[in-house]
Design brief:
This protein is an all-alpha fold. 61% of the residues lie in helices and 3% in strands. It has twelve helices and two strands; from the N terminus they run αααββααααααααα. Strands 1-2 form a two-stranded antiparallel sheet. Helix 6 (107-130) crosses helix 8, helix 6 runs antiparallel to helix 12 and helix 7 packs antiparallel against helix 11 (205-216). Mean pLDDT is 83; it is low at 245-272.
Length: 274
């Protein structure tokens, strides 16, 4: 992965170019007019070329003699790269407008839900068998932070990401652990929508607590079932938002755990994610 500082002229130039490519403003196959871009963005040619190197490392652009710098086919883009994923979510949000309902209906979030439905139930089964005391401590710390989140989306997003990263780490499968790079950007974008101003998603703490309890008990079947319930809760929260409906407790009183699990949770606990 090509790293870059997101601040400063270099970072701003990378972000601008990436959003234009991903948004289709600079089409696949298009040759970039570097002189025009340099003048428009107000950067040196050296800074522009350095920024394009970041995109080149992510498979988005290439340079050839006689042809110049051009946008590569989408099939060549590193779509699982953490920066590319983040840019995709940012670009999708801008294209669909500022409304949370429109952004919640994004096909990219649908893709994220489908990937989570494949990856996390399998990961949690392994975690239930392989978890260590350190894994349990990391999951417990994330759950405690989730329950205590008080400043809106920021703490909630951080706690939710910490829990799901700890869950993948507890699988002790290196490839699954690396899936956090795929999930993190999307999960953060989803959580910022669901926990944005004026939205009141269902309490996530009981559902996450049920997952942790099953992992602690080393019960893979119960862990998988709890994860499926948690993902169903996440889908309901997003569906309500995309429909423009107020979030809250789904019909039947479920809050992400089984029907027999207590809803529980203080107002502070309702600041988490799924």
């Amino acid at each position: 992965m090509a790293g870059y500082a997101r601040r400063g002229v270099h970072g701003q130039t990378v972000e601008t170019l990436a959003h234009r490519v991903l948004g289709g403003e600079i089409a696949e196959g298009a040759t970039l007019d570097l002189a025009a871009l340099q003048a428009e963005l107000g950067v040196s040619l050296t800074a522009l070329r350095e920024s394009l190197k970041v995109l080149a490392a992510k498979g988005m652009v290439d340079a050839r003699q006689k042809r110049g710098t051009f946008v590569r086919p989408r099939a060549d883009w590193h779509l699982l790269d953490a920066d590319v994923l983040r840019w995709r979510f940012e670009t999708a949000g801008r294209q669909q407008g500022e409304g949370a309902a429109a952004r919640a209906a994004s096909p990219l979030l649908r893709d994220l839900d489908e990937v989570r439905g494949i990856v996390e139930p399998a990961a949690v089964r392994l975690a239930a068998v392989r978890r260590t005391d350190a894994d349990l401590a990391a999951l417990e710390a994330a759950l405690t932070a989730m329950a205590g989140a008080r400043d809106g989306a920021a703490e909630a997003v951080a706690a939710d990401l910490a829990f799901h990263r700890a869950l993948l780490a507890a699988s002790h499968n290196e490839l699954l652990e690396r899936m956090d790079q795929v999930l993190a950007s999307g999960l953060a974008a989803r959580d910022r929508l669901v926990h944005g101003p004026g939205h009141h998603p269902s309490d996530p703490v009981p559902g996450h607590r049920a997952v942790l309890a099953a992992i602690r008990a080393q019960d893979p079947d119960a862990a998988e079932a709890a994860m499926h319930r948690l993902l169903a809760q996440a889908a309901r929260d997003l569906a309500e938002l995309s429909a423009g409906e107020p979030g809250g407790e789904p019909a039947g009183g479920s809050t992400g755990g089984s029907a027999a699990e207590p809803a529980g949770g203080s107002a502070a606990e309702r600041a988490g994610g799924a």
